[in-house]
């Protein structure tokens, strides 16, 4: 379980870093249908995706720990789930986005639960530290 968690966390981090950098470099040209949105949206796109790069680096950092910190994985996965909730609110408020973002929303809903499950399974599978002998007697 630990190897699968490590691999998926590394892939998640790498994907976030690459996607974030793509959007930082291309700005609004990286978003389907937003080519003419203007300077404000372009600035926001680049700013938020620099943060997304940092989020990806946090996944990579977590995956490189031994043991992998389950609470950090849960936190990072929870943030990803919150992003999916934001997309769902947007769909309810202003309508359906480009089809590709709908696919991303589905992934953003499913993947956090995979990480929650893997983090719990990995945590449960770890050997418990031995208790120190009681020397007070």
Choose one word for the global shape: elongated
Amino-to-carboxy terminus distance = 40 Å
Query: Secondary-structure element sequence?
Result: HHHH
Low-confidence stretches: none
Would you count the extended β strands for me?
A: 0
Instruction: From the alpha carbons, calculate the radius of gyration and give it in angstroms.
Output: 19 Å
Strand content: under 5%
Secondary structure category: mainly alpha
Please report the number of helical segments.
4
Reported for the largest beta sheet, the result is: none
What fraction, in percent, of the residue positions are helical? over 70%
Question: In total, how many domains does the architecture comprise?
Answer: 1
- Can you give the mean pLDDT? 92
